[in-house]
Design brief:
The complex is a heterodimer. Chain A is an alpha+beta fold. Chain A is built from 22 helices and 20 strands. The chains are: A alpha+beta, B alpha/beta.
Amino acid sequence: MKAQPRGTDGSLLASLPWTLGALGLALAPHLPYLPIWITIASLGCAAWRYSIEKRRRLLPSRWVRGGLALACFLGVLVTYSSVSGVGPGSALLAIMAGLKLLETRRRRDQFVLLFISIFLVMSSLLREQYLWSLLYLIVSTLVILTAWLRMSAAESETAKQSFVTGSRLLLYAAPLAIVMWVFFPRIATPFWAVPIDTSRATSGLSATMSPGDISSLSMSNEVAFRVRFADIVPAPRDRYWRGLVLTSFNGRTWAGTEPRIGSPASKQIAVRGEPITYEVTLEPTRQHWVFAIDIPMSWSLKNTFMGPQQQLMRVHPIDQRVAYEVVSYVDYRIEAELPKLFRDWYLKIPDNSNRRAAELARQMRSATGSDVAYIEAVLAKFHNEEYYYTLEPPPLGSSPVDRFLFDTRRGFCEHYASAFAFLMRSAGIPARIVLGYQGGEINPLGGHLIVRQSDAHAWTEVWLPETGWYRVDPTAAVAPERIDYGTLDVAFDGLGATWGFAASSQLLHRLSLTLDALNARWNDWVLGYGPDTQKKFMEWLGMQNPDWRKMMLTLVTIVIALIILISGLLMLRYRKPAQDRAAILYWRFVKQTGMQPHLGETAADFARRVAVDGTLDRQSVNNVITAYLDARYGPADDASLLRLKNAVTAIG
Amino acid sequence: MQRGITLEQLPTGIDAQRNTILQARKTLGKIILGKDPQIALALACLLARGHLLIEDLPGLGKTMLAQALAHTLGLEFRRIQFTSDLLPADVVGVSVFRQDSGKFEFQPGPIFSQLVLADEVNRATPKAQSALLEAMEEHQVTVDGNTMPLSEPFFVIATQNPGDQIGTFPLPESQLDRFLMRVEIGYPDEASERELIAGGDRRAMIAEIEPVAGPEMLIALQKSVRAQHLSEPLIDYIQALVRHTRESAEIDIGLSPRGSQALVAAARAHAYVENHSGVYPDDVQAIFAAVAGHRLKPAGSTRFRSPAELCQHVLDSVAIP
C-alpha cells in the first residue's frame, strides 16, 4: 500500500471547526460517564489536529497513530477490564473518534467523522432518555447536519444558509421519524437487549438495614416513582409504599431472609372498604421490589409475585422504567394465624448484644398489662422522652439499639423502626421491619403524586393474635409531621438557603414541579410507549386487532406516502424557474423541425440552419423566430406571444 | 470645422432616430465595402459612449472607417498621428506666451475635438499614450494646473497595427480596458474587393459624405440606447457567459464586473443599431469578441490562437437561456 501524503494545505480550515464542534456535541453526553483521561485525550487530539491545519504541518505518521490507537485501546481495557458493553464501547468510540481526527486529510474522512458523531449522539440515548435528551439530540443533529452541509457547500454559502438548509432537512425528516416511532411494532419481550451501563446504579433502597452505620441520610430529590390515582387519593398518613420486608436481626443489621410459607401470601389478607386504583411509573432500580400502597390486592405487572411477607417482587430486576396498575386497600388484616415455627422466627434476637434494651423491654412488658398496652407504652416513651428526629444522627457502634435508646436518642426512621422492632421481639411480640416509601408530593400541574428517594421510609409491623400483622410506625410517635406532611418543604428551603436565594425557593419549587410534570408526561407518552400502549393507540386509531403485520404494513404505506409527498413538495420547491410561455412554444417549434440547436446557438442561427435544411417553409420559420425573439427578449407583450403561438401552430 | 447639422433641421422622434441609424449604416457601407458587421459594431460602440480600438494590418481601411464615421455622424474630427517622438503636449495642447497681451495663452491640442482619431497608437511612448488615455477616462485634461473639460460628445478611435513589433509600445491590459471594443476589420471578400478596385477614390468619397446626424442627435441616440429593453433571460445569459470566463480552464483572468457592464452596454447599443425589439442573444454574440477579446487573459496552455477563437469557444460552451 502506498503511503498517503501527510501534508495539509489548510483547505479543511473552513469546515474543520464545524466538524470538531459537531463531534464535541456528540461526545459531550458521554463524557461524564467516561474516565477523565478520555476527555483529555479527545480534546488533545482535536486541538492537535486544528493546529496542524492552521499551521499547515504534517499529520502524524502511521506509526504514531497506530501506537496511540493501541495505547488508548489498552487504556480502555485496563480501565474497564472489558471491551464490550455500553461503558467500554462508548469509551472506545469516543477515543477512536478523537484519533480519527489525526488521519482526517480529506473531505471523505470528515464525512466518516460526522457518521461517527451521529452514532455517538444516538448511543447517548442508551444512558439518558430524559425530555432534554431529545432537545439535545435535535440540536446536536442539527449541528452535525450543518457541518455536513458546510463541507459540501459552495464557498459563497454562508454558515447561516447551511444552518437553514439543515433545519429544513431535519423538518422534512421529522414526520418520517414520528410515523416510524408510532407504527414500528413494539414487541413484548425485546429480542435485542440493551446492555445497561451499571457503573451508576440509581440510589434506592438496599436489601439490608444497619441503623447507625450511616451517619447522614442523603436527601436525594431524585424521583423514585410517580403515581396517578384513578379516583381516590389516600391521605398522606395512608401512603405507605410497601417495598421489602426485613425479618432477621443479628444485633446490628436487619436482613431480608424469610421463611417459606405454604399457602400464597395473598390468601392471608382480608380487606375492607373502598379499593384504591392507581398507576405507578417506577424508575429503574435494578432491584426486584415493586412498590405499592399497603396492601396491594392485584397488580398488572407481569412476572411479579407477592412474597411471603406480602411484598411484591418481580422475577427479573427493574432495569427500565415500568408502569403498572395496582389495586390496594388501606383497610386490611394479614395472617390471623401465625404458626409456632414462624412465630419463633419473628421473635429471634441475638443473645449477646443490646442487653440493656432487652432488659428494658422485659421491665416495661411486665409493668404493662397487655401487648397492646406495652406497644402504647413504648410509643409513649418515644413521644414523651427526649427522642429527636434528625437526618444526621451520630454513629452508633456495635450495640446500636442500646446506644440509640439510652445514649444518643437521635435518629431517623431506621433507628426508630429498628429499636421498636427489637423492643417488641424482646418482649415476645413478633415484629418485622418494612422498607419502602412514605408520603409523596402531589404535583398540582400534572395531577400526579411524586415519590422521591428522600421519601424512603422504614416502619414496623407487629403481630398480635387479635389483629394479625399490624403496622406500627414509631417515627410517627417521634415526628408526626414527617408522616402527615412529608419533609420536602424542609428540603427545598434548605436547598434555596444554600444557594443564597431562600426568598425564591418557592419559585424554585414551582419550577421543579413544572419540570417534573413535563417529565411525567414524557415518561407516560413517549418512553412508556410499549406494546400495550401501542395496541391501545392502534385500536383508538381504528385498527382492528392490531398485530405486528398490520402495523408494519401501515408503517410502510405511510412512509412511502410521506416520501412521495415530501419529494413532491421538494420538486415543487426546486422546480426549474418557470419557463415563460415563449420558451415553451420555441421548444415546440424545435421539436417540429426535427433538429437540435447546438450549445450556444442562437434562435436566429438555428432558424438559418433549419431554413437551409429546407424541410420547413423559410417564411414560416422566419415568422416563428421573429415572434419568439420579440416575445422572449422584447418588452413583455401579449401580441407577440400570440404571434408566436400562431406561427408555431401554423407549422404544426 | 463644424460639419454637423443642428437639431432643428432634423426630423425628431423615434422614427427619426431609426432613420438616422439606417442612413448612417448605408452611407458607411458605401465607403467600407462588405464590412457591415464591423460598421454595426463601430456604430454600437459610439452609441454606447465607448471608445473604439481598431486593430488590423495596414491598408485594410482602419483610418478610413474612423474618418467615415466622423463625417457621417457630423462630428468635429481631428487626427493625431502617433509617433515615437510624440509628446503629451502634442495631444493635449500647450500654453504659449503672447507678447501683445503679456500672458500665457492656451493653445488647445487635437484632443479638444468631438472625435479624435489616434492613429497607430502603439507607436508612441507610454507617456504620450497615457495623456490620451487619461483624457479618455476623465473626459477632461489638466494643463498648467487648469482643468478643462473636453467637448461632448467625445470619442476616441484608436488604431494599431498588431503586425509591428519593432519600436512599438503595446498598450497594457489596464489601458486596453478603457476601450469598450476592439474591432478587427479583416480582408474584404471577393465581390467587395472587385468593387473597390473598380470604384472611385475613397478619400474623395469621404469628403463628399453628407452628414446624417450631429452631436445633439448623437446624444439623443445614446439616451435611447440606454432605454433598450433588457430581458431577464438575457441577463441570465450574460451572467452565464461571464461566469464561464471566470471558471474556464482556458482562461486565466475572466471578465471583471466592469467587463460585464461593458457587455451589457455594447449589447444594448448593438440591439439598437440592429433595430431589435430587445437585446437578443444574437446581439450579445455579435459584440462578445469585440468587448471581451482584449479583456480576457488566456491560460498559458490554451489551444486557441487568437482572442476571437477563444471568445467563440466561450460562446459555444454556454447555453442560451
